[in-house]
Amino acid sequence: MRKKIDCVSECLASLLLAAMVVCAAACSKGANDDTIAKDIQSKVAADPVTKDSAVFVTAKDGKVTLRGTVKDTSTQQRLEQIAHDEPGARGVNDETAVLPIGPEATANTPPPNATPPAAAPKPEPIVVSAGMDLIVTVDQALSSKTSQPGQSFLATVAQPVTVQGKTAIPKGSSVIGTVITAKQKGKIKGEGELAIALKSVTIHGQNYSIRTSTLDSTVKGKGKRTAVTTGGGAAGGALIGGLAGGGKGAGIGALVGAAGGLIGGAFTGNKQIEIPAETALTFTLAESLTLPPRPE
Question: Does a structural domain hold residue 141?
Answer without folding.
Answer: yes
